[in-house]
Design brief:
Blueprint lengths: L3 E9 L4 E9 L8 E8 L4 E7 L4 E6 L13 H15 L6 E7 L5 H9 L4 E7 L17
Parallel strand pairs: 3-6, 6-7
Antiparallel strand pairs: 1-2, 3-4, 4-5
Helix pairs in contact: 1-2
Length: about 140
């Protein structure tokens, strides 16, 4: 999983021998200037993923991944720590500008946004993508007892 190794074979035509050499090829880090932070907030957990403009994930974190368990996962304090953790991971890619999309309702909603803002990134947009029902399917008929 670490570094990629490139194996090349060299043949010496005068002697007829083969010699194999191994070169270590370093993987270059992506340089991303503009990113999108997807915040998913529920009553039980807070999850944040930072992607580039294509949608490829650069960094992610959740309150469960930080070690919070049970009802402490849904607290605003946990959401703030998740935001700070994911910003530190994303700064490895030289991220500067950030668009934020928030989905869901929960206690850590505003706290997650404040944590991203405190990370030192320029917030260019803030969008709410919470799904709203438009009177979808018909309700079940009442039970007759």
């Amino acid at each position: 999983m670490g570094q990629k190794k490139l194996i090349t074979k060299e043949t010496n035509e005068t002697e007829g021998t083969q010699k194999a050499s191994v070169e270590v090829v370093k993987k270059s880090k992506k340089q991303v200037i503009n990113g999108v932070a997807h915040i998913s907030v529920s009553y039980n957990n807070t999850m944040i993923a930072i992607t580039d403009t294509k949608g490829e994930v650069l960094a992610w974190s959740s309150s469960g991944a930080l070690g919070f368990k049970g009802s402490k996962k849904s607290t605003p304090y946990a959401a703030n720590l998740v935001a700070k953790n994911v910003v530190e991971k994303a700064k490895r890619y030289n991220l500067i500008n950030l668009k934020i999309t928030v989905k869901g309702v929960g206690p850590g909603r505003e706290s997650a946004i404040r944590g991203l803002a405190a990370g030192g990134l320029n917030i260019t947009a803030l969008m709410d993508k919470t799904p709203i029902a438009h009177n979808g399917v018909k309700a079940k008929k009442p039970r007759r007892v």
